[in-house]
Amino acid sequence: MTRGPTLPAHRIPHLPGRVAIPTVPEQTRTATSAHLLEGFNTAPADDARRLLLDCLRSLRWARRVADHRPYPDLESLLAACDEAAYDLTPGDLAEALASETLPTLPYGTYSAAHTALSAAHAAYEARFGHAFVICLDEVARDETPDRVLEGIRSRLTNDPEEERVVTAEELRNLAKGRLAARLRGARNPALGTNRAVSGE
Q1: 10-24, 47-61, 143-157, 162-176 — which is least confidently predicted?
Q2: Domain range holding 180?
Q3: CATH code of the domain containing 186
């Protein structure tokens, strides 16, 4: 069977997920985390909000998290991100979902997988009115197509309120994973010099 091209970038742009961090001594890990977090804590508010908006496109969420700085450690920051996302209004969710799309498929994915995924996603958008979102932090790259397709098909059976709850949970997980990846992979995330970290 021939392999098809990846889906167009405007349909499925890359959404970074959490990556495995090489094992390093606890003292080194703590010092690095503290240094990166200090940059976030001391950045101008606009810069901190901009970084947060790269993780979840909700202005209210980004403001709430940025306004409660400083955070003593990364775990506290991620917990605050989670808490701030729990009471997002339907309008906040719609704002965040407007910039979400399916995750990138691994290079060389079979054409049949692209066809099946495109059809499933179209059915999902027709039913719920927004892109399907799923957190793939713990999923191997070669398992992405199957996991996404399985997730769409399973969630198509939800009623709109059930799917709203599931979608909000997936957005919370995505936001935390993206922020952790950016902070761990940045030289100075507060000044906008962070590099995107992917699961590739």
Answers
A1: 10-24
A2: 26-191
A3: 1.10.3330.10
DSSP the chain: -PBPPPPPTTTS-------PPPP--HHHHHHHHHHHHHHHHHS-HHHHHHHHHTT---HHHHHHHHHT---SSHHHHHHHHHHHHTT--HHHHHHHHTT--PPPPPTT-BHHHHHHHHHHHHHHHHHHSS------TTS-GGGHHHHHHHHHHHHTTS-HHHHHHHHHHHHHHHHHHHHHHHHHH-S-GGGT-PPP----
Q: What is the pLDDT of residues 65-77, one digit of tens each?
A: 999 999 999 999 9
pLDDT digits (tens, 9 = 90+) for 106-129: 777 778 888 899 899 999 999 999
Q: How many domains does the chain have?
A: 1
Residue 197 maps to a domain = no
> Is 19 within a domain?
no
